[in-house]
Specification:
Layout: H1 3-17, H2 28-35, H3 39-42, H4 49-65, E1 74-76, E2 92-94, E3 96-97, E4 100-101, H5 104-116, H6 118-124, H7 133-153, H8 160-184, H9 200-210, E5 213-217, H10 220-224, E6 230-234
Antiparallel strand pairs: 1-2, 3-4, 5-6
Helix pairs in contact: 1-4, 4-5, 6-8, 7-8, 7-9, 8-9
Length: 241
């Protein structure tokens, strides 16, 4: 049996056992007994239960991005500086259309994983006995969301603190909404009526970036040197001075 197959065996057992456990906590010993294997076997594939939980989510994303519909999308892996346990697994992808980012297909397809395992995720996102998976996801997605802000900047200057704010705000908007629904409601949120809104975070991100600039005419030395025309100048959000 391949390494991937064994990992999937552990993953399927873990996701099945979590809702059945009275304490919601499933240990390596519990998994080993359920699968009828030696406890030490688990550690040939994962360092601990937390790493297994991360792998379950990351494996789905990597498998999802291997689908033909994402073939032409630009794939993203964790940066080396993140010390992620699975640095070779892509987790994010960009679809550039008309000099913008069209991410709806990515986010909706990703959310189906949570929807299809709703009971499991409602527990692990609200339980204190496991790694804070939500914090891991936020940390994972912040770097590419910063890059998305920089994509919309298209070479324009913006204070780093503003870039960080926009990235953090939209990461929390996307994943905070999903966590809320899978831990606090019983609503089905995959309706076709909201399909256009799966790209809402990036639509607002672009509008937020563009609204921070004003077009001004060149003056002084620039015009003297023949650099006629207008230039985009950062002014901050909503400022008129």
């Amino acid at each position: 049996m391949s390494k991937a197959s064994v990992r999937h065996k552990f993953a399927q057992a873990f996701m099945a056992l979590v809702p059945l456990s009275p304490t919601k906590r499933v240990t390596v010993t519990d998994l080993s007994k359920h699968l009828g294997i030696d406890r030490k076997t688990f550690y040939n594939y994962f360092d601990n239960i937390d790493q297994l939980m991360i792998w379950i989510y990351r494996d789905y994303l990597a498998t999802m991005l291997n689908d033909e519909k994402f073939a032409k999308w630009s794939k993203v892996c964790p940066p080396p500086t993140s010390f992620d346990p699975f640095p070779d697994l892509p987790f994010y992808a960009r679809n550039i259309e008309d000099r913008s980012l069209s991410q709806a297909e990515y986010f909706k397809t990703m959310a189906y994983h949570w929807e299809n395992h709703r009971q499991y995720y409602s527990i692990v996102f609200s339980s204190t006995c496991y790694i804070d998976l939500f914090d891991y996801i936020v940390t994972l997605f912040l770097p590419p969301f910063r890059e998305d802000v920089e994509f919309f900047l298209d070479g324009r200057d913006m204070p780093t603190v503003v870039i960080d704010f926009l990235a953090e705000y939209h990461v929390m908007g996307v994943f905070g909404r999903l966590r809320y629904h899978y831990t606090q409601t019983n609503k089905f949120i995959m309706q076709n009526e909201i399909d256009p809104f799966w790209n809402y975070a990036h639509i607002v991100m672009r509008e937020s970036v563009d609204s921070c600039y004003e077009t001004v005419e060149r003056h002084g030395l620039s015009r003297f040197l023949g650099m006629n025309g207008s230039v985009s100048r950062y002014r901050g959000l909503g400022r008129t001075d």
